[in-house]
Amino acid sequence: MLTGVQILTRAGILLQDEGHVRWPLPELVHWINEAVDAILLAKPSASSASITIPMVAGTLQSVPQSGTPTPLRLMGITRNITAAGPPRVGGRAIRPVIRSLLDTSQPQWHDPRYVPFRKEVRQFIFDEENPLEFYVYPGNDGSGMVEGIVSTRPAALAASGPEDDIASYAGSVGLPEVYSGAMVDYVAYRAQQKDDFAANTGRAAVHYQTFATAMGIKIQTEAATSPNRDRKR
User: Fold this and answer.
1) What is the pLDDT along the chain (233 residues), one digit of tens a residue?
2) Are 141 and 117 a contacting pair, CB within 8 Å?
3) Parallel, antiparallel, or unpaired for β 95-96 and 123-126?
4) DSSP output for 167-199
5) Is the sign of the CA dihedral 17, 22, 26, 30 positive or negative?
């Protein structure tokens, strides 16, 4: 995982401010945390984890919204969990289903009088407009658990000692090293926007374009090389 020291060091070199005089460390750290958010908006899977989601009674379920790292959105449901562990013990696989198909074939599926609620989930429905909720079929009796893949927001980088000492930022920023270039460019972009004699809006635009291009290329490459690419054809 990337550390704050790595990003701060590279940003200082790129900004020709290795002593962090024009752009103090706390200011750069703020932009590092902002860069993490920007990357997660473009690529939610940059920080992800599989978690156990306890079911409540009914068809509508929610992703837990507490803990660190904090879940941002659901990316998939994989299987039923028969024992939370550790180790986690898996049960029946769960498949995604299109809401309109289920609504057409079984319009009363939300009502336990027509489709009895059970512990085991067979299918799920997800709406991108509601990223922390999903529906399960059949509705759950409140005793089930499923395994979900979620995008997570890492804990913000903060000083562990004096704020003006770069060694105080040795903690992880929460993203893999493959995102280091994009993060450095984002930090440099925000630094060059500063209303200061050292600012350079032209360079800021270049750094932002480099950041955006890097993220776009990564997203396209991952889509083209995904193990699921043949499934989408």
Assistant:
1) 899 999 999 999 999 999 999 999 999 999 999 999 999 988 999 999 999 999 999 999 999 987 778 899 999 999 999 999 889 999 999 999 999 999 999 999 999 999 999 999 999 999 988 999 999 999 999 999 999 999 999 999 999 999 999 999 999 999 999 999 999 999 999 999 875 655 577 888 899 899 988 888 766 666 655 555 554 44
2) yes
3) parallel
4) GGG-SB-SS-GGGHHHHHHHHHHHHHTSSSTT-
5) negative
